[in-house]
Specification:
The complex is a heterotrimer of chains A (359), B (276) and C (276).
Chain A lengths: L7 E12 L2 E12 L3 E5 L6 H9 L6 E6 L2 E2 L10 E4 L11 H11 L4 H14 L15 H13 L5 E5 L7 H18 L2 E6 L2 H7 L2 E6 L2 E6 L1 H6 L4 H6 L4 E3 L16 E4 L4 E4 L12 E10 L3 E8 L2 E8 L10 E6 L1 E6 L2 E6 L1 H9 L1
Parallel strand pairs in A: 3-8, 3-9, 6-7, 7-8
Antiparallel strand pairs in A: 1-2, 1-4, 4-5, 9-10, 11-12, 12-18, 13-17, 14-15, 14-17, 15-16, 18-19
Helix pairs in contact in A: 2-3, 2-4, 3-4
Chain B lengths: L9 H29 L2 H8 L2 H34 L5 H7 L2 H4 L2 H12 L4 H10 L7 H26 L2 H9 L4 H30 L2 H7 L9 H10 L3 H34 L3
Helix pairs in contact in B: 2-13, 3-8, 3-10, 3-12, 6-8, 6-11, 8-10, 8-11, 9-10, 10-13, 12-13
Chain C lengths: L8 H29 L3 H9 L2 H34 L5 H13 L2 H12 L5 H7 L8 H11 L3 H13 L2 H8 L4 H30 L2 H6 L10 H10 L3 H36 L1
The chains are: A alpha+beta (359), B mainly alpha (276), C mainly alpha (276).
Chain lengths: 359, 276, 276
């Protein structure tokens, strides 16, 4: 990301962190531009939360520098780094009202009560929770709690907002609404924000940029499109999208033989499934396969076919002719990722070239 | 009475429970009620307002109150130390807190008494240095009650302190609170209900305590005579009416204390669990 | 965790206060008992504890304790089973009544039995005809011991069973298992350590009960004197070596109980961790 000539606002340089024998962060280098909404994405135990907590000053790195707005902040307590933190389970103070929760950070800073009142009512308006100020956290819905936690973190006007799994504790339906709400809110406030998630859909939908972590290392930083179209490592290639790993890819027709490649990755959008005779274009280059399973996905169907012992997924619109389990279908593979250690290349079906030449 | 459940064994377990409960607790309690109902109100009032009896209540309640306050403060410190700090001897400390539950009260009583008489290990020091007598004074009673009450507060605060979500403290810290503010505003409100509950249990237990107190009290009328001892004295004179009258007032006091606590706890629970 | 780390002076001040407080209030009395028991040499100690009446008193204490443990185990298991596995009306009242005995002063506990079975009671002539004497006799002592330890076992079992829920029992019942199979195979493994722990607590309290037993005992040497009562007798008779020697037996029991408690708690926790 730093190569995009945007000045980094939050920067981690050569960060290492151990918890006992566990190496939680390995040479972590990241740079986050001002005003961006960034997701830290990775499986659990990949070290994403540790990175967030080190930025917040809740953990100290063993080595490396944490830089915010050009200043090294390693020795500055978290509360003085200009950071708002939204905790995974919100950590609202149970014995305080909504008002007192939001006012807490301001009271600690000895802000005059009059200003506190103004700021709190401004924030309550922002989170559309006017009239709830006298309630206790237990009397709020999950979504409201999250909003209050958000307002509490914003109250002291932080420059950076950190959110730890902000949607993990909410029902699926509310979660979608809240995602959109949070993205709008952050865009409106122009506040540099970093959130941790293990849900790639969430990261792709909400974030401007995504940092993928795995086993304590940063695998790749980039926009969702970049991660999608040019994964930098095999981990990213497998982690992003609904990927299927194929070992015997050299049996697939019309693909160049790549000697040194070890495995290939297919995603549903790389594959098309046709009923017999449905497509004229690719008949000669299609593979024959049997439908193993069909999963209704609401707007479309996921069709799983068995091809050379691999279960491959593809999506079909519900408006297309129906295929059935056990039916023999034509499967056309447009492209696949070939992986060799950490070198990745996208290869296309050669028949595409030939046929386009013919046509 | 019974709601349908697929699990068998309601009848037998309920039956056994009610039978044993009736034989050991309910029937004897009923006989207390029946006996109390037979007391004439004037006699009852005369008995419980006798200066010696009133002074007995006063001694019991005041010493129990002071001891429970001491235990609330020390119990809070002990619970805090046991939950938040690592240090050598921690398991030992944790282990001996339960000693007052395990050691017979009479044994504790004679030991504390013998130690604190003007010839005893501790008593001699205090008497020689400050002229303070411990055994056979209200101070002695208070000390015996502190001994009895130690585990109550520790054991009710400790689990609550262990369960406090660290995120709440981190949230306070991120918002700029220092340790003191964090303790006062975030941790203390969390443990206050448990602290009150521990205090109340200790207080109720100490008011009725007999075994450990009777030796150290010296039992001087109007000075160090506790209410349970007055009941005992009436029983030995076979004056059951007087004994029952005094006991009824004590039960009433215990009932009031425990009810206040129950109300307080349920109002806190309401606030925290959101049933309003 | 970093914000909870604290190695400031406050930590050590609080730890030192804790150690001092517990040493003075808990350990010193314990050491005092042992040192006084052995003050006149091991010979005198052995003579004291092998005294005929001491042994008889110890036997009676063991007898009452065994009764209390047996009755309260049955009660504890059935009460915990019906209170946690079923929903029924009056549940709250039932559990209040089970917990009631510990909040009652031991002297009042003694009093209610005197009122129930004493000479003035309507039951007395009936029992007397059958040749049963309860008050100032062994049955009274046993009853009083059961009463004061009444909820000790159920109180340990109920939280464990509540946390465990009813899913497993329901599954077993659906597969056609009967009450005792479900209890033995499904429920019992969960409550094993809690039950043992409850038994240990019950034993501790039963052995040491003084007040209630004191009311109901005829104070007959070798007949109705339990160990704590006999200790009182020796102490009142200025036989301090004897009193403290007899006490040392109970101190030893208390120490064993504390160690058992730690072991059981550790086992219970370990099992819980494995399940998680």
């Amino acid at each position: 990301m730093s190569d995009r000539n945007e000045e980094a606002y939050v920067e981690l340089k050569e960060i290492n962190k151990h918890f006992g024998n566990f190496h939680a962060s390995k040479d972590v280098n990241i740079a986050i531009p001002k005003g961006k909404l960034v997701a830290l994405l990775g499986p659990s135990g990949s070290g994403k939360t540790t990175i967030l907590r080190m930025i917040a000053g809740l953990e100290q790195p063993d080595s490396g520098d944490i830089i915010i707005a050009g200043n090294r902040v390693n020795n500055i307590p978290g509360s003085e780094r200009g950071i708002g933190f939204v905790f995974q389970s919100y950590a609202l103070f149970r014995y305080m009202t909504v008002y007192d929760n939001i006012a807490f950070g301001l009271r600690v800073k000895k802000v005059p009560e009059k200003e506190i009142r103004e700021r709190v009512s401004e924030l309550l308006k922002l989170i559309s929770c006017e009239g709830l100020e006298k309630r206790f956290p237990s009397q709020l819905s999950g979504g409201q709690r999250q909003r209050v936690a958000f307002a509490r973190a914003l109250a002291p006007n932080p420059q950076i907002l950190l959110l730890d799994e902000p949607f993990a504790a909410i029902d699926a339906k509310v979660r979608l609404e809240l995602r959109t709400w949070l993205k709008e809110m952050i865009t409106k406030l122009q506040i540099t924000s970093i959130f941790v998630t293990h849900d790639q859909d969430e990261a792709i939908e909400v974030a401007d940029e995504i940092i993928v972590t795995n086993q304590g290392k940063v695998e790749q930083c980039g926009t969702p499109q970049e991660l999608y179209s040019s994964p930098a490592s095999s981990f990213v290639a497998k982690f992003i999208g609904n990927s299927t790993v194929i070992k015997n890819f050299d049996r697939f027709k019309y693909f160049e033989k790549a000697e040194e490649a070890e495995e290939a990755i297919l995603r549903p959008e790389f594959v098309a499934v046709f009923k017999k005779g449905e497509s004229v274009q690719y008949t000669s280059s299609a593979e024959k396969a049997v439908v193993e399973d069909i999963i209704f996905r609401g707007s479309n169907l996921e069709v799983r076919v068995k091809l050379y012992d691999n279960l491959i997924s593809s999506l079909r619109s519900i408006n297309e002719p129906i295929v059935e389990i056990g039916e023999t279908v034509d499967v056309f593979i447009y492209r696949m990722f070939l992986l060799n250690k950490d070198r990745i290349c996208l290869v296309h079906n050669q028949s595409l070239k030939q046929e386009s030449v013919v046509i | 009475m019974k709601r349908k459940s697929i699990i068998p064994g309601f009848g037998i377990s309920f039956g056994l429970t009610i039978t044993i409960l009736s034989l050991v607790v309910l029937i004897p309690l009923c006989s207390l009620v029946v006996y109390a109902a037979k007391l004439s109100p004037s006699e009852f009032l005369y008995t419980v307002t006798r200066p010696r009896v009133l002074s007995g209540y006063y001694v019991s309640i005041s010493t129990a109150f002071v001891a429970s306050i001491v235990n609330a403060v020390m119990g809070l410190i002990l619970a805090w130390v046991l939950v938040r700090y690592e240090f050598p001897g921690k398991r030992f400390l944790d282990g001996i807190i339960e000693l007052p539950f395990a050691l017979p009260t009479a044994v504790a009583g004679i030991s504390l008494t013998h130690m604190t008489t003007t010839n005893g290990w501790i008593g001699k020091i205090f008497y020689d240095a400050f002229g303070i007598r411990i055994a056979y004074t209200r101070l002695g009673i208070t000390i015996a009650l502190i001994f009895i009450g130690i585990p109550f507060v520790v054991r009710s605060v400790q689990p609550v302190l262990e369960k406090i979500d660290i995120q709440c403290e981190e949230a306070a810290f991120m918002l700029g609170a220092d340790r003191k503010t964090c303790f006062r505003k975030v941790i203390f409100p969390e443990i206050l209900p448990a602290l009150i509950s521990g205090f109340t249990l200790a207080f109720a237990r100490c008011i009725g305590e007999y075994g450990s107190v009777v030796f150290i009290a010296g039992n001087t009328p109007y000075e160090t005579e506790i209410a349970p001892l007055l009941i005992m004295a009436q029983l030995q004179e076979f004056d059951y009416s007087a004994a029952t009258s005094i006991a009824l007032v004590m039960l009433l006091i215990a009932f009031v204390i425990l009810s206040i606590n129950a109300l307080l706890q349920s109002s806190v629970a309401k606030r925290v669990n959101g049933k309003s | 965790m970093e914000i909870r780390k604290n190695n400031g002076p406050l930590k050590w001040i609080l730890i030192v206060i804790s150690f001092l407080f517990l040493t003075i209030f808990l350990l010193l009395p314990l050491i005092y008992i042992l040192s006084t028991a052995f003050r006149q040499g091991i010979g005198a100690y052995l003579v004291s504890i092998s005294d005929e009446y001491t042994i008889k008193a110890a036997m009676l204490t063991i007898k009452a304790t065994l009764w209390a443990v047996a009755v309260n185990t049955i009660l504890g298991i059935s009460a915990a089973w019906c209170l946690t596995k079923f929903a029924f009306r009056g549940k709250k009242i039932l559990s209040t009544f089970i917990d009631l005995p510990v909040t009652v002063s031991p002297i009042i506990a003694g009093l209610i039995y005197v009122l129930t079975f004493g000479r003035q009671s309507d039951l007395y002539p009936i029992l007397d005809d059958m040749g049963i004497q309860i008050i100032f006799a062994v049955p009274g002592i046993v009853l009083a011991t059961i009463f004061v330890t009444f909820p000790f076992i159920s109180r340990e079992l109920i939280p464990v069973l509540t946390a465990q829920g009813t899913d497993e029992e329901e599954a077993a019942a659906l597969m056609g298992a009967g009450t005792f199979t479900i209890f033995r195979k499904v429920t019992f493994p969960h409550i094993k350590w809690a039950l043992l722990y409850g038994i240990v607590l019950c034993t501790a309290r039963a052995m040491g009960e003084f007040g209630a037993v004191s009311v109901l005992s005829g104070h007959l040497r070798g007949k109705t004197n339990t160990l704590p009562l006999y200790i009182e007798l020796l102490y009142q008779g200025y036989d301090f070596t004897g009193a403290f020697a007899a006490s040392s037996i109970l101190v030893l029991m208390a120490i064993i109980i504390l160690i058992l408690r730690l072991v059981l708690e550790k086992k219970g926790k370990k099992e819980l961790d494995i399940k998680k």
